[in-house]
Design a protein that fits this description.
Length: 175
Protein backbone atom coordinates (compact mmCIF):
# COMPACT_ATOMS: atom_id res chain seq x y z
CA UNK A 1 0.00 0.00 0.00
CA UNK A 2 1.60 3.31 -1.03
CA UNK A 3 1.83 6.11 1.52
CA UNK A 4 -0.23 8.50 -0.62
CA UNK A 5 -3.23 6.15 -0.31
CA UNK A 6 -3.17 6.48 3.47
CA UNK A 7 -4.62 9.63 5.05
CA UNK A 8 -4.24 10.46 8.73
CA UNK A 9 -6.23 13.11 10.57
CA UNK A 10 -5.26 14.37 14.03
CA UNK A 11 -7.56 16.41 16.28
CA UNK A 12 -5.84 17.90 19.30
CA UNK A 13 -8.70 18.86 21.58
CA UNK A 14 -8.86 20.23 25.10
CA UNK A 15 -10.27 17.00 26.54
CA UNK A 16 -9.37 14.33 23.97
CA UNK A 17 -6.77 13.65 21.27
CA UNK A 18 -8.28 11.76 18.33
CA UNK A 19 -6.62 10.13 15.32
CA UNK A 20 -8.39 8.69 12.30
CA UNK A 21 -6.66 6.70 9.55
CA UNK A 22 -8.26 6.36 6.14
CA UNK A 23 -7.32 4.41 3.04
CA UNK A 24 -8.18 5.71 -0.43
CA UNK A 25 -8.93 2.92 -2.93
CA UNK A 26 -9.06 5.17 -6.01
CA UNK A 27 -7.75 8.67 -6.73
CA UNK A 28 -11.09 10.50 -6.54
CA UNK A 29 -12.81 8.10 -4.14
CA UNK A 30 -13.47 9.07 -0.53
CA UNK A 31 -11.25 7.25 1.97
CA UNK A 32 -12.50 4.31 4.03
CA UNK A 33 -11.77 4.46 7.76
CA UNK A 34 -9.34 1.68 8.68
CA UNK A 35 -8.24 2.77 12.14
CA UNK A 36 -8.74 5.16 15.02
CA UNK A 37 -6.89 6.14 18.16
CA UNK A 38 -7.92 8.19 21.14
CA UNK A 39 -6.27 9.41 24.33
CA UNK A 40 -7.15 11.90 27.05
CA UNK A 41 -5.59 15.30 26.43
CA UNK A 42 -2.74 16.45 28.60
CA UNK A 43 -0.78 19.67 28.47
CA UNK A 44 -3.65 21.47 26.73
CA UNK A 45 -6.02 24.02 28.28
CA UNK A 46 -8.80 25.81 26.42
CA UNK A 47 -7.31 24.70 23.11
CA UNK A 48 -3.84 26.06 23.90
CA UNK A 49 -0.66 24.03 24.48
CA UNK A 50 0.48 24.73 28.06
CA UNK A 51 2.95 21.84 28.45
CA UNK A 52 4.65 20.57 25.30
CA UNK A 53 6.01 17.38 26.91
CA UNK A 54 2.59 16.30 28.23
CA UNK A 55 0.91 17.16 24.92
CA UNK A 56 3.50 15.15 22.94
CA UNK A 57 2.90 12.15 25.22
CA UNK A 58 -0.89 12.32 24.77
CA UNK A 59 -0.61 12.73 20.99
CA UNK A 60 1.86 9.83 20.81
CA UNK A 61 -0.53 7.59 22.76
CA UNK A 62 -3.41 8.30 20.35
CA UNK A 63 -1.16 7.80 17.30
CA UNK A 64 0.21 4.51 18.67
CA UNK A 65 -3.33 3.17 19.18
CA UNK A 66 -4.22 4.00 15.57
CA UNK A 67 -0.95 2.47 14.31
CA UNK A 68 -1.60 -0.75 16.27
CA UNK A 69 -5.10 -0.98 14.79
CA UNK A 70 -3.89 -0.48 11.20
CA UNK A 71 -0.38 -1.91 11.32
CA UNK A 72 0.77 1.22 9.47
CA UNK A 73 3.33 3.68 10.83
CA UNK A 74 2.18 7.30 10.65
CA UNK A 75 4.50 9.49 8.60
CA UNK A 76 2.24 12.46 7.85
CA UNK A 77 -1.00 13.79 9.31
CA UNK A 78 -3.47 16.56 8.67
CA UNK A 79 -3.87 18.40 11.96
CA UNK A 80 -7.08 20.22 12.82
CA UNK A 81 -6.68 23.69 14.26
CA UNK A 82 -9.39 25.41 16.26
CA UNK A 83 -9.96 27.65 19.23
CA UNK A 84 -10.01 31.32 20.14
CA UNK A 85 -6.61 31.87 18.49
CA UNK A 86 -8.06 31.03 15.03
CA UNK A 87 -10.03 33.64 13.09
CA UNK A 88 -11.75 33.95 9.74
CA UNK A 89 -12.13 37.03 7.61
CA UNK A 90 -13.44 37.84 4.17
CA UNK A 91 -11.21 39.25 1.46
CA UNK A 92 -11.33 40.29 -2.19
CA UNK A 93 -8.68 40.02 -4.89
CA UNK A 94 -8.53 41.55 -8.38
CA UNK A 95 -6.15 40.97 -11.32
CA UNK A 96 -5.96 41.65 -15.04
CA UNK A 97 -6.10 38.51 -17.21
CA UNK A 98 -2.57 37.66 -18.38
CA UNK A 99 -3.20 36.24 -21.87
CA UNK A 100 -3.60 38.56 -24.86
CA UNK A 101 -6.67 36.61 -26.02
CA UNK A 102 -8.27 37.07 -22.57
CA UNK A 103 -8.64 33.35 -21.81
CA UNK A 104 -8.44 32.70 -18.07
CA UNK A 105 -5.84 30.12 -17.06
CA UNK A 106 -5.09 28.19 -13.86
CA UNK A 107 -2.23 30.65 -13.35
CA UNK A 108 -4.70 33.56 -13.37
CA UNK A 109 -6.78 31.80 -10.71
CA UNK A 110 -3.67 31.29 -8.55
CA UNK A 111 -2.70 34.95 -9.03
CA UNK A 112 -6.13 36.31 -8.04
CA UNK A 113 -6.26 34.06 -4.96
CA UNK A 114 -2.77 35.30 -4.04
CA UNK A 115 -4.00 38.88 -4.53
CA UNK A 116 -6.82 38.25 -2.05
CA UNK A 117 -4.16 37.38 0.57
CA UNK A 118 -2.52 40.79 0.27
CA UNK A 119 -4.11 42.01 3.48
CA UNK A 120 -2.81 43.49 6.70
CA UNK A 121 -2.74 41.05 9.59
CA UNK A 122 -0.93 41.48 12.91
CA UNK A 123 2.70 40.31 12.95
CA UNK A 124 1.87 37.54 15.44
CA UNK A 125 -0.72 36.01 13.07
CA UNK A 126 -0.30 33.72 10.05
CA UNK A 127 -2.61 32.88 7.14
CA UNK A 128 -3.38 29.14 7.19
CA UNK A 129 -5.86 28.84 4.31
CA UNK A 130 -7.42 30.94 1.59
CA UNK A 131 -10.73 29.50 0.44
CA UNK A 132 -12.12 30.97 -2.79
CA UNK A 133 -15.90 31.37 -2.48
CA UNK A 134 -16.84 32.87 -5.87
CA UNK A 135 -15.19 34.46 -8.87
CA UNK A 136 -16.28 37.45 -10.95
CA UNK A 137 -15.25 37.93 -14.60
CA UNK A 138 -15.77 41.42 -16.02
CA UNK A 139 -18.60 42.12 -13.58
CA UNK A 140 -20.34 38.75 -14.01
CA UNK A 141 -20.44 37.34 -10.49
CA UNK A 142 -21.17 33.93 -8.99
CA UNK A 143 -18.71 31.98 -11.14
CA UNK A 144 -17.39 28.80 -9.52
CA UNK A 145 -14.55 27.99 -11.95
CA UNK A 146 -13.45 30.71 -14.39
CA UNK A 147 -10.73 28.65 -16.15
CA UNK A 148 -11.32 28.70 -19.91
CA UNK A 149 -13.65 31.71 -19.78
CA UNK A 150 -12.71 34.95 -21.53
CA UNK A 151 -12.39 38.34 -19.89
CA UNK A 152 -10.20 41.28 -18.98
CA UNK A 153 -10.64 41.44 -15.20
CA UNK A 154 -10.81 38.53 -12.74
CA UNK A 155 -11.96 38.94 -9.14
CA UNK A 156 -12.37 36.54 -6.24
CA UNK A 157 -14.22 36.69 -2.95
CA UNK A 158 -12.35 34.52 -0.49
CA UNK A 159 -12.46 33.41 3.12
CA UNK A 160 -9.12 33.70 4.89
CA UNK A 161 -8.35 31.53 7.92
CA UNK A 162 -5.58 32.89 10.10
CA UNK A 163 -4.15 31.91 13.48
CA UNK A 164 -1.71 32.88 16.19
CA UNK A 165 1.88 32.07 15.14
CA UNK A 166 2.98 31.00 18.66
CA UNK A 167 0.05 28.57 18.86
CA UNK A 168 0.84 27.07 15.44
CA UNK A 169 4.55 26.73 16.31
CA UNK A 170 3.79 25.07 19.65
CA UNK A 171 1.33 22.66 18.03
CA UNK A 172 3.88 21.88 15.30
CA UNK A 173 6.48 21.04 17.96
CA UNK A 174 4.03 18.60 19.52
CA UNK A 175 3.30 16.67 16.36
Amino acid sequence: MSADQILVGLDVGTTTIRVVVGKREAENAPPSIIGVGEAPSAGIRRGVIVDIEEAVSAISTALEKAERMTGIATEHAVVSVGGAHVASLESHGVIAISRADGEITENDVVRVIDASQAIQIPTNREILHVIPKAFTVDGQSGIKDPVGMTGIRLEVDSQIIEASIPFIKNLTKCV
